[in-house]
Amino acid sequence: MASNKRERELARLRAERQAARRADAQAHRRQRRNTILASVAGLAVVGLIAGVALWLANDEPSKDTLAAPAPSASASASAAAGKPGTCSYPKSGAAAKKVTGAPATTGVQTTGTRHAVLKTSRGTVAVELLASKAPCTVNSFAFLAGQKYYDKTPCPRLVSSGIFVLQCGDPTGTGSGGPGYSYADENLTGATYPKGTLAMANSGPNTNGSQFFVVYKDTQLPPSYTPFGTITKGLDIIEKVAAGGDDGSHSAGGGKPKLPIDLVQVTVA
What is the homologous superfamily of the domain 47-268 according to CATH? Predict the structure, then answer.
């Protein structure tokens, strides 16, 4: 009898140990699965932002290629070096809309701010341009405004997931138009893109042209797009367009805004 009782006790202990080991194994598998799922979710978010950032980076190709040619090394170095009042605007592709001449390369304002007014089909947006931080960019923007390059042109792309931007500045409305010249990046050190930022779209380092985007909600982007202005009035106009959503027509994210918006006239003081 004592022997049978002892055997039953040993069997019970073995069963408890086996159950405990199974429970530990299941808990380990659950923890591993949750870690993998969390990693995949994180990669998905990063991938979304990177994908849309790639769209911004590639959205201003030249007329004939998928990537606008970068300016020459000497031209890029001169602009990037920040020589007071000096910029370089080498030719790059054909202009999407007639442009006479090119922006001034000397005597460029390098201090303070300038003021721009973007009259849109949905209201007026006022912008403070950062001449002290992005002088060559502001100089080009003012030149194109004076050429009426931006007048009566659409803002053809809205992104409302991952990043939050409205892109303008291509007279063709296709995302492939530029002014016929390019120039170097500026103001990228520590660049961030809070709500109200104006920044340049590009097709890679030092390939800025005419296309720019308006950030209507704080957005995480790599410091690859020259910030050159801040909206001081009228951001609500862009926010209303954004609230209408986009048609999802662009494969890399976003599409045409469902509430269309055009630049009627752009002036810089």
Answer: Cyclophilin-like (2.40.100.10)
